[in-house]
Amino acid sequence: MSKAQETVLEINLNALTHNYTFLRSRLSPNVKFMGVVKAFAYGSDSVEISKKLEEIGADYLAIAYAEEGVTLRNSGVMLPILVLHSQMVSFDTIIDRCLEPAMYSKRILREFILTAEKCGQKNYPVHLKFNTGLNRLGFNESEVAEVLQILKNTDAVKVASIFSHLAASEDLNEREFTSNQIASFTRIASEVDKGLAYKPFKHLANTSGILNFPEAHFDMVRSGIGLYGFGNETQYDEKLVPIATLKTNISQIHEIKANQSVGYNRAFKADTHMTTATLPIGHADGIGRIYGNGKGIVSVHGKAAPIIGNTCMDMIMIDITGIDCAEGDEVILFGPEAKANSFAERAKTISYELITGISQRVKRKIINT
Ligand SMILES: *Cc1c(COP(=O)(O)O)cnc(C)c1O
Predict the structure, then answer these.
(1) Which of 34, 135, 206 is the best mutation target for the ligand 1 pocket, counting ligand atoms within 8 Å of the beta carbon and taking the most?
(2) 184 lies in a domain?
(3) Same domain? 200 vs 336
(4) Cα(218)–Cα(197) distance, rounded to whole angstroms?
(5) How many domains does the chain contain in total?
């Protein structure tokens, strides 16, 4: 049996290539691909993922905040990088590191133009973000004329693309809502095209948009979760391979007698004699308290072992009664077989939250298998 030395998150770059190839296969050849690598590439390793995406032919990267792009530029990543949620305080950094900001409000657009003018920029690439129903970030459809007017008065910036974001692309019960978003985006796109002397490219679809709405691919798609191995639907999950495996090892085994308790607050009480194992991973590593008390189930030599009692900061305890294992043996929390989306769903959350929450204390290990 292999003995893990410590808690690690293994990142399989071959699985990333597999997922990229599958997602690409759903697109017309002329559609560009933006890899979304925000939040440490969904909790994996943004530098390694970005470099691999650059190598295998992605056209663009997206991050949420400028500082994430500084890390990528410092590591030599050359692809164009869209900053989805650009903040005024980072405009200088954005220009300094050749990052491309999303413009989502008149306030942000006016201020960025001032910064670009002050820095002597000409045609600095910006991306116009429109709100078509998510009501999170973006200009409204009613603001197109005003936005065009602001842009007419400067040559410091140039619109590289216009985009919007789908609110429920994974939910086919909301098909009509999504179709309305696509229609709104199409109207906005043609209005912007008419108002500018050039044609910015258009993008709307996230992973589920790619898979469920081919009519929403436009000139480019933006995929995050699909690259990391999840398709928000069983039929697509089967086609994708989770790139990350969270593994640890058994620190100590305890024999617990009936009526004894395990962990803080005595949250677990044994009915009968049982065997428990203590693992060196806790809520400070991203396995939150929501996974305590039987919600999270880990895998010991392929056998299911539930987390018992409350999750501690640095440890969890699992029930290994009847499982043939020893101290030092490997334990898998999630990976290509025991999938993170199932782990998350038992605690009523989603793969996105679980994988992005694996903290920086957990060592990342890059593999290619
Ligand atoms: C995070 C994000 C994406 C990626 O979404 P997935 O569902 O992970 O593919 C795409 N576009 C925007 C604007 C985002 O914020």
Answers:
(1) 206
(2) yes
(3) no
(4) 20
(5) 2
For residue 64, which atom of ligand 1 is closest to its CA?
15
For the chain, the distance separating the N- and C-terminal CA atoms, rounded to the nearest angstrom, is 19
Note if 339 is an active site residue.
no
The verdict on 182 and 65 lying in the same domain is yes
Mean pLDDT, the chain cut into blocks of 10 residues (369 residues total): 74 98 98 98 98 98 98 98 98 98 98 98 98 98 98 97 98 98 98 96 98 98 98 96 98 98 97 98 98 98 98 98 98 97 97 98 95
pLDDT value at residue 1 = 47
What is the structure's pLDDT at 369? 82
Among candidates 209, 203, 207, 223, which has minimal Cα distance to 179?
Answer: 209
Whether this model's pTM surpasses 0.85: yes
Burial of 261 (0-12, 13-18, 19+ CB in 10 A): middle
Residue (of 204, 248, 210, 273) closest to 26 by Cα position: 210
Q: Which atom of ligand 1 is nearest to the CA of 352?
A: 8
- Report the pocket of ligand 1 as residue ranges, CB < 6 Å: 36, 84, 165, 206-207, 222-226
Cα(302) to ligand 1 centroid in Å equals 33
Residue range of the domain that includes 259? 244-367
Gap from CA of 224 to ligand 1 centroid (Å): 6
Atom 13 (ligand 1) nearest CA:
165
Which ligand 1 atom minimizes the distance to the CA of 228?
8
Instruction: Please say if 264 is a catalytic residue.
Output: yes
Task: Return the pLDDT at 5.
Answer: 63
Kindly name the residue from 20, 38, 42, 247 that is annotated as catalytic: 38
Cα distances from 122 to residues 74, 97, 114, 115, 331, in angstroms, run 24, 16, 12, 12, 55
CA of 34 to the centre of ligand 1 (A): 10
Q: Which residue has the tokens 């309305």?
A: 180
Which position among 152, 199, 264, 269 bears the catalytic label?
264
Query: Domain boundary residue among 204, 228, 252?
Result: 228
